[in-house]
Amino acid sequence: MSVRVAVSGASGRLGSLVCEVVEQAAAFELSARLGSASPADAGADAEVLVDVSHPDASPAIVERALARGQRVIVGTSGWSAERLASLEELVAAHDGAALVVPNFSLGSVLGTALARIAAPHFDAVEIVEAHHPQKVDSPSGTAVRTAELIAEARAGRPVDAPFSEQPARGELVAGIPVHSLRLAGVVAKQEVRFGGPGEVLTVTHDTHSNDAYRAGIGAALRFITRASGLTVGLDRVLGIGAAPAAPGDASAAGTAGGAA
């Protein structure tokens, strides 16, 4: 029997792709395409709600879905650490399941995992992200997630970011400068640049078309049917992103950590 899926933000770039992936998957059935004009009870019969709407609308949509017992996948940007903390409480209160995915691209998730490994070994870190001009939020959810994971991997050691109070130095996210570009001709791109004495390491991921998100959407749909509680990041779904060892900590180098 197919799992019924409703998609909020179905007419958008990502929403249209999610609908397409659901329709092509034998185990799932697209039961509702939801938009800003849809009534509050639309899609209530679905077992899974995928929210890829707007950052301002997303929290209310997710709260309503959890309250009626739906499993939720959130692909909308704007879910900060503060919002996630509130969401975790909400999921627990409803004994529900929610998966928040800042980026459905497998390459992007792997890029962030590599950046997290490098994070403890460099004093200077900056992130440059670029997206299409229609993206309404900045910095991107992917950049915010990357910055937070880098800061976590550094275990409280501050990043060397001189003159960070100047607006041209970007927005500080978890103490890391993030620079956002919105350009025609771009789908999505992120560069994480690490600076050290005599060298620079750059971890770059380019998205050339929305096809990059198909595999991640499929993985998220399969995961949410058996998940419980709040899960943040496609890395958890894929089983990657082990906690890196601190520089010089040989004992930790061979120890597997939990994904973040």
Give the spatial strand order of the biggest sheet. Answer: 2-1-3-4-5-11
Give average pLDDT, whole number.
91
Please mark out the parts with pLDDT under 50 across 5 or more consecutive residues, or reply none: 243-260
Quaternary state of the chains: single chain
C-alpha termini separation: 33 Å
What is the tally of beta strands? Answer: 11
Count of DSSP H/I helices: 8
- What can be said about the biggest beta sheet? 6 strands, parallel
Form type: globular
Q: Note the beta-strand portion.
A: 25-35%
Question: Strand pairing plus helix content: what structural class?
Answer: alpha/beta
Question: What is the percent of helical residues?
Answer: 25-40%
Could you tell me the radius of gyration in angstroms?
A: 19 Å
SSE run: EHEEHEHEHEHEEEEHEHH
Walk me through the structure.
A six-stranded parallel sheet has the order 2-1-3-4-5-11, with helices on both faces. The protein is globular. The two termini are 33 Å apart. By secondary structure, it is α/β, with parallel strands linked by helices. It contains eight helices and eleven strands. β1 (3-8), α1 and β2 (28-34) form a beta-alpha-beta unit. α1 crosses α6 (214-224) and α4 packs parallel to α5. The protein is 31% helix and 25% strand.
